[in-house]
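Notes on consecutive records. When two proteins share a document, each keeps its own sequence and its own C-alpha cell line. Never mix them. Below: protein one.
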Amino acid sequence: MRRIIEALNKAALAALGSREESSDFIDPGRLVEGDLELVLIRKFYGNSGSGDLPTYRFKMVHLGDDKEIGRIDLRAGDTERVLLYLGHIGYRVDPKYRGNHYAARSTHLLLPLARQHGLSTLWITCNPDNLPSRRTCEFLGAELVEIVDVPNNSDFYRAGEIQKCRYRLDL
C-alpha cells in the first residue's frame, strides 16, 4: 500500500510541476492547535491545461519535539478530478501518531485558507476500505455522498484503486 501511495504522490508531483507563483497563493499565517502545527513546505502552481490546481503542502509537526508526524495538502479550486476522485484535502499521518485526530485537526486548521480561496465546500475522498480515513471524515462532520468508480485510465485505477468514497464538508 505504501508503494501505491508513493507512486500516486510521485505522479501528482509530476503533474503539478515545481513552478511556484506567489500571486496565486495566500499567506496562511501560523497554523497551530494544541500540540499540532502545520508548516508550509511547498506550493505547487498547478497546470490549467491538465486541470491541476494550485496546491499547498504542509507538514504536520508535533510541538514539543518538532517531529514531523504527517502531511496534508489543500487543493485550491474545483476541477472534475478534484471533486470526484482526488479531493480538496489529502492527508497522511505516520502510523506512530495515528489515533490523535491529527488529520481532522489539520483539516480544521486549513478551513479559513480554503474559504479565502472562495471554496464553500470541501470534498475529501478515500478508498472504501480505508476505515481510519472514513472515520476522520465523519469526525469532521463530512457527509458521505457516494462511492464512485474510478476511471480505468486514471493513475488511481492503475495503482489498484477502483473506487473512491466522496465526502462533502460544507464550510
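Protein two starts on the next line and is unrelated to protein one.
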Amino acid sequence: MENTIVECIFDMQFESDYVVENFLSIISNIDGFENIIKLPLHQVPEVIRKNDPNLKLQPLYEITSLKNRDYKITLGDNVIGIAILKSYTSWSKSFYPQIEKIFTEILATNKINFISRVGLRYVDFLESENIFLDKKVNLSINGEEITEKKVFLKIEDSLDDIDYNKIITNHVKYKNSKNSGSIIDIVTSKKDIPTNGLENIFQTIQKLHVINEKKFKEVIGDNYVRQYKL
C-alpha cells in the first residue's frame, strides 16, 4: 500500500541566554547542514521578535545539507525544528535517528536553559478516500448521518501526560494532488521538560511517537493501518 504520510515534523521550543546564531554554528557542523537561507522574519529586530509571542517561535533560518538531502532544519530565536523531505519509511529508520543526532549535539552544549515544549506532527493524506465512510468514525446530527458531507473534525485531549490535537477532514485536496481525499493531521506534544537528563528527553520524544501512532490507528480503517511508523 502506498505511504500516506505527506508531512512529518518534530520541533523543540526552548529558553536560552544565547542568540540564535550560536545554534546556527552548532547545526552547521552536523551532517553538512551548511546550506543556510535567511527567512523574511530575520529582518525584524531581535528585541521585537523576542517580545512578540507570535514571532518568537517562528523560524528565522532554513538549513539543508548538500550531503544529506533528506531533511530540513528550521531555526528561530526559541525553536528548532526538523522535517523529513524524502519518502517516509519508518520512525526508527527514517526520522528518529536524525532527531537524536541533532538534538544530542545541541543539548550537549548546555546553551538551552529549559525546554518549554516538544512536539511531533504527522499529516496523512488518503487520496480518493472519505475517512468518514469507515465505521470507526460515525458522525450524525439529530440521527442523520453526515458522513457524505464535507466535515472538519477537531479533537483535543491528553493521554499518559502527552497532549494531542487531532484534525480529520474529508473532500479536500493536499497541495497539488489530482484528486480530493481525507487528511488526518495529528500533533502530540509535551510541555515543560527539564534539560538535566538526555535520556528523559529522548524517552519523551519516543512517547510522542507512540501516542501519535495510537491516535492514528483509532480512526483509520483496518485496510489503512499504518506500517510506516513502526
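For the record: The chain has four helices and eleven strands.
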